[in-house]
Automatic annotation (TrEMBL):
Cofactor(s) recorded in Swiss-Prot or TrEMBL: pyridoxal 5'-phosphate
InterPro entries per record: Aminotrans_3, Aminotrans_3_PPA_site, Class-III_PLP-dep_AT, PyrdxlP-dep_Trfase, PyrdxlP-dep_Trfase_major, PyrdxlP-dep_Trfase_small
One Pfam family of this chain: Aminotran_3
Organism: Ancylobacter vacuolatus
Family affiliation: Belongs to the class-III pyridoxal-phosphate-dependent aminotransferase family.
Enzyme Commission code: 2.6.1.19
Key words of the record: Aminotransferase, Pyridoxal phosphate, Transferase
Single GO term (MF): 4-aminobutyrate:2-oxoglutarate transaminase activity
Protein's UniProt name: 4-aminobutyrate aminotransferase
SUPFAM superfamilies according to UniProt: PLP-dependent transferases
Amino acid sequence: SYPVMPQMVSNEFPGRRAQEVIQRALQFQSPTRPSVKGRIVVESGYGAGIQDPDGNILIDLSAGVAVSNVGRNHPRVVAAIRDQAERLMHSAGLVNETTVALAERLSACMPEGLRGECFTWFGMSGSAATETAIKFAKAITGRSQIIAFEGAYHGVFHGSLALTTRENFREKFGPLMPGALHMPYAYCYRCFVDLKYPDCGVSCAKYLDYKLSTPNTGADDVAAVIVESMQADGGYIDPPVEFLQMLREICTRRGILLIIDEVQAGAGRTGKMWASEHFGVVPDMMTWAKGIGGDLPLSGVTVHKRYQDKLPLASQVITGAENALANVVALANLDILLDPQDNLIERAALFGAEIKAELAAIAADSAILDDVRGRGFFIGVELVADKATRKPLEPKRVGAILQRCEQLGVRIMACGRYGSTIRIMPPLTITKAHFREGLRRFAQAVSEVEHAQIPA
Ligand code: PMP
């Protein structure tokens, strides 16, 4: 019931027309990357395929950036937009039933503990959702500090960027929001104190408790802990179950709010609607974006009703938010994700496990592909220069792999502290054949770089 991509081809890449578009972008659009290399121009999409203006079709193992969870141009989504556009596109400050319906629908599919007991603020980007969650936490608690984690990505505005630890994103923009602290995330592959799970007793979570109990450090002024249920840009990390559970317990015991960021891991990607459901942890507030609005800009903060009276919601509206087109797209996306016939979320859980096993077999035969981890279609693979020391693969060689992938007709992205983790996150609608073909091309690129057919 979802579109099938035509047979994939890959000619000269990037071709002449794509290069022209890129040159125009570099002249008139704030450049997000300085070079023509590695920039894909997308003209149209089919399921998990993207086509550039020269007719090259690539398998998109990134779903945008974990955005197009139901694939591109899903007919049910397209029909919903068409139907709504003919009636009303945006209510701008007025009540519209599509917003109400989406808030109700989200409430119904929240994890148990929030389900039916929450309300939602709507925005247009994950960054905006983080900003709002920070403000809500301050208003609710009357405190001012926010704790995030090493490797976190929560957005690019002054508050959300203060919680994001990517140095190249932050430099030149200081001072950012004061009162942002960072604790170690449970990145067990490269543990910050070289311990091994489970013998470590999840020391990283314990360190948070230790920090909060240190007198005269402002620990009693902490409003919230914000954490990605599964850390995304920081390295596609699947933390031990206890990690999030311990954070929940520490926050509850100390009267601190727990905000779970489901922007990238949510919307069915990990094999459950929300990744936090794997850990049995219920947040006080959840931020979401990407896969819920899919190809339209939509985000939100969903908050437990117990805090309703503490929030001055009327003054926190963004003019472009609560957009009727975005709302009906989100409703259609949720219908598609939760459709019992296709069962896309469960399918991602099962098929993702198969893919992980296949990747682990590829990694076993490779000197530079290591740890394969994740859940559902949220899979991380480490690229290393040396498996014994886990030294990250040099950026030049990672770049060569990504570029070769594009030439071979597969789009794949890296992430992580050293930019050396490959993240695999296709649309949940991808066919098994396309997923495997994408991986075959990726494995070929890795093998070519490993065996130096491509110079380092
Ligand atoms: N949180 C997480 C976990 C994210 O992955 C991102 C985007 N990479 C954001 C927040 C920010 O979302 P946006 O780019 O829509 O502002």
